[in-house]
Amino acid sequence: MSAPGSGAPARPAADGAEERREIRVGVAELAAAVAGQQLVTLGLGSCIAILLWDEAARVGGLAHVLLPGPELSRDLGNPARFPCTAVPQLVQTMRAAGAGDELTGRLVGGASMFRALLATAGVNIGERNIVAARAALHAAGIPLTGEDVGGQHGRSVRFDVGSGRVEVRSLSAGDRVL
Predict the structure, then answer these.
(1) Residue 52: strand pairing partners
(2) Does pTM surpass 0.90?
(3) Which of 23, 35, 48, 81 lies in the 20 to 30 Å Cα band around 73?
């Protein structure tokens, strides 16, 4: 089985059991999964989780993007770092796992964790990540069906690919289902 970010979904083991029920997706990684599996990412601050789902095929994908665009980075080799490159890569990864063309998207994260430390004209990466993620979904023709973004609190996400249920957990803001 492939590691998150490699582009290949987990496959059933020889005995028919899922190799991994939970697939953890780290910062600047992306992964696809199938029904019976969950995609999990922890510790979203200003980063944003882009979640895609094909309800009919029961295939999902999650990208944990770090920055709003390549102009803010020297490392351009990882498409999962930015929404504009993560979304097309995630769609391709999901198609390899059996997804079709009817995808929907959800966004989680994009907080301003240190708003008090920012000068009035300071760069708010969280807000810029939200705008860039929405634009990337729009450019790919993927409708946005839910989001839990902004604010000043961190979040973690658990995406049950079979049901499409996205649980957002936050110590300071409580839990929410998208």
Answers:
(1) 61, 105
(2) no
(3) 23
